[in-house]
Amino acid sequence: MAVVRDLRVLLRFRHFRQLLAVRLLSQGADGVYQVALATYVVFSPEKQTSATAIASAMAVLLLPYSLIGPFAGVLLDRWQRRQVFLYGNLLRAVLACITALLILSSVPDWLFYVSALCVTAVNRFVLAGLSAALPRVVDADRLVLANSLSPTAGTLAATAGAGLAFAVRLLVSDSDAAVVLLGAALYLCSALTALRIPRTLLGPEPDLVPPRLRSALASTAQGLAAGVRHLAAPERRAAARALGAMTLMRFCYGGLLVMVLMLCRYAWTSRESEGLALLGLAVGVSGAGFFAAAVATPWAAGKWGPAGWITLCASTAALLEPALGLSFAPVPTLIAAFVLGFTTQGAKIATDTTVQSQVDDAFRGRIFSVYDVLFNVAFVGAAAVTALVLPSDGRSVPLVITIAVIYAALAAAMYRSDAQ
Fold it and tell me: Are the CB atoms for 114 and 80 separated by under 8 Å?
């Protein structure tokens, strides 16, 4: 198969393999850590979870990135990205251990959220840096394929980490602290793996940016404005449209995730352990959709173009999401999880490629940080809107229909813009 042959060629790039290993370990740890947070907030027997509580937790953990994200981008265009991966993951390993101690100490929820926020805040630097560094380790002809393999493999690693976390909690120990410590160990492994990459290989070029931290922080506003102007230029309009489309698809995915959480917690079973197992199954099925998208997207994006592939993904979601979701039954919902995993990841690969190919290297860090901020704001916004309409058992026909309409409107808008 052509895809298999191209993958073999891509994996011959030694530094690509090293960067991919850093991503797999880091995002695998993210999956473990996120499951620990979800089970602590949603599935703890002593907690009566509501959609509002889930939305509040997401807001506490994600909204501050609207402030952190821009600084991450400007700093990533000045700091050596290899060092960000090294020290960022070391810091997360230490902070995750502190979070585990807080869980064991039964501290107030706000203190737990502060600790969790510190761990996930560093993630903004690491993920944006991984995307910005990718064009430095592969040639331009294989950038689309690299964007299929690398981010999707990271997502699959996060899914595998989540599955491992579910297994540890259900089979080995029911302690969320033990799961957090597993995540800390993976963060440490990711940091050590980053040491294999030459320090200056991943950029940015030192002669293109101010070397002093104070100078970098002072120029944050100017740097962001320059990045936005760079993205808004007519020749990069396709990248801006792709970012907007991906933000809306993230909004839809976030709303449906809250719905599935509530269905697993209250509608499909009365036992927390069974609800947790169903959630783990949904995560695994969605991960299979991510993998399928990684295989299909290089061919599909080559045939229809990135914008055409995003249009097709949104159209598929608009048709199948209500057809499968309105039953609110486990099996159709799991099929919907696969479909949405496939369409969301397929659109993301196309968006990543469009942004990387149209944005100059000196601007990639800040543009991908803005990209990340849009993701978080859309996700939290979806959770807030969902909390207003979702009943306690998670069944909401208006929510399913509204999300289908958003997908359809997005597909129509992308089709019109691509036809122009």
Answer: no
What's the total number of domains in the chain? 1
pLDDT at residue 208, as a whole number: 60
Site of tokens 């409107």: 409
Q: What angle do CA 222, 226, 231 make, to 5 degrees?
A: 150
Please give the structure tokens belonging to residue 88: 């960022």
The residue range of the domain holding 159 is 2-419
Query: Quick one: which of 94, 104, 150 has its CA closest to 127?
Result: 150
* Contact between 76 and 365 (Cβ < 8 Å): yes
Task: Give the model's pLDDT for residue 111.
Answer: 80
- Round to whole Å and give the CA distance between 316 and 252: 13
| Buried-exposed string 300-323: b where 16+ CB fall within 10 A, e elsewhere | bbeeeebbbbbbbbbbbbbebbbe
CATH code of 305's domain: 1.20.1250.20
Q: Are 322 and 400 in contact (CB under 8 A)?
A: yes
Residue 401: the pLDDT is 94
Are the CB atoms for 63 and 387 separated by under 8 Å? no
Q: Is the pTM of this model over 0.85?
A: no
**Looking at residue 268, what DSSP letter applies?**
S
The total of other beta-carbon atoms located within 10 Å of residue 201's CB is 15
Residue in the structure block whose two tokens are 């949405």: 340
Q: What residues of the chain score a pLDDT lower than 50?
A: 1
Phi, psi torsion values for 50, nearest 5 degrees: -130, 165
